[in-house]
Amino acid sequence: MAVHSGKHGIVHVANPAGGTGVKEPFVTDWSLADGQSPEVYRASNTRGGQFVNEGVVDWSGGFNGIGATPLIMPGEVFDFEGYTAPTDNAYGTTGKTYTGEAICDSVTINWSWAGGASLSWSAAFSAASAGLTESTILLDDVTNTLPEIMCALAIETGAAGAEVALPNVVSAALTLTADNQTFTNSTTGCFTHRKAGNFNFTFTVTHQEEAETIAKGTDTRFRVYTTASLFWLIEWAHLANYSGLTVNRTSGAIIQKTMNFVMQGTSGSVLGKIVKPDSTVVWPIP
After folding, report:
1. How far apart are the two ends of the chain, measured CA to CA in Å?
2. Which of 50, 62, 71, 246 could bridge across to 124 with cysteines, CB 3.0–4.6 Å?
């Protein structure tokens, strides 16, 4: 037993599960919760208290990073490997690592022009089958590239070939989710299992405009850039409402508000799609 710093933390994923694990670059932190739900009973023999039996095992976690997108998407099953720290505190040596088959629940990509911050993302996952295992191995991340500069990026709307940039955008967030289904039965051996559920997304854009630049109820096509030439393609996002409009006479703060979009699978008779910057189609499901 020893005390260790988190400065050595690494995440590797194998997607699909069972493949060769590869590093998830630019991870800033990762976390796990592992346990079981005890079966509690009170009866004539519990003397006014309670007895418990071991319950069904479940675990979950998440990791955050810098960049346009992680290596996993909602509903995908993958092998998670989380390296904590070298046992002897020497960089590049083996250390405690947690491993398990997981399913991705959600991914959020964040754009923030206000402070010129780098693109960032977060991913959440849960157990897909069985429990976590612990081992002592070595994982590393020797990525030497720099993340994209935020001020060079933009959000565009409009039909293909006629896109225009949204002006005065402060921040945006694209959240992709899967309504993964949990089950335990006579075959799962007291472990929680999950299967991929329906896909969904939300998209929020905060901009420094007092006018409603997009009409409520409109289905909109977006290109949200991650480099000067690569982008997330969103078809379609339905504008549900505006929120957060604040006019502060005392501080004189810049007026801004947020547009809140929800997934629209089809606009009229045109089926939508969600496409990653590398041209991988996230939805519709093949």
Report:
1. 48
2. 62
Find the mean pLDDT for residues 64-75.
Answer: 92
Q: Is 46 left (phi over 0), alpha (psi -120 to 50) or beta?
A: alpha
CA 96-76-175 angle, to 5 degrees, is 100
pLDDT at 114: 87
Per-position DSSP letters for 140-201, written without gaps between them: -----PPPPPGGG--EEESSTT--EEPSSEEEEEEEEEE-PEEE--TTSTTB-EEE---EEE
- Domain tally for the chain? 1
Residue 228 lies in a domain: yes
Say which residue, 143 or 53, is predicted with more confidence: 53
The residue type found at 194 is R
The answer to whether the predicted template modeling score (pTM) of the entire model surpasses 0.85 is yes
Phi/psi of residue 128, each to 5°?
-95, -35
- What pLDDT score was predicted for residue 211? 85
The pair of three-digit structure tokens given for residue 210, joined into one six-digit string:
């007092």
**Does 245 fall in a domain?**
yes
Domain limits for position 233: 6-34+56-283
In a domain, 46, yes or no: no
Contact 158, 152 (CB under 8 A): no
Under 8 Å between Cβ of 183 and 196: no
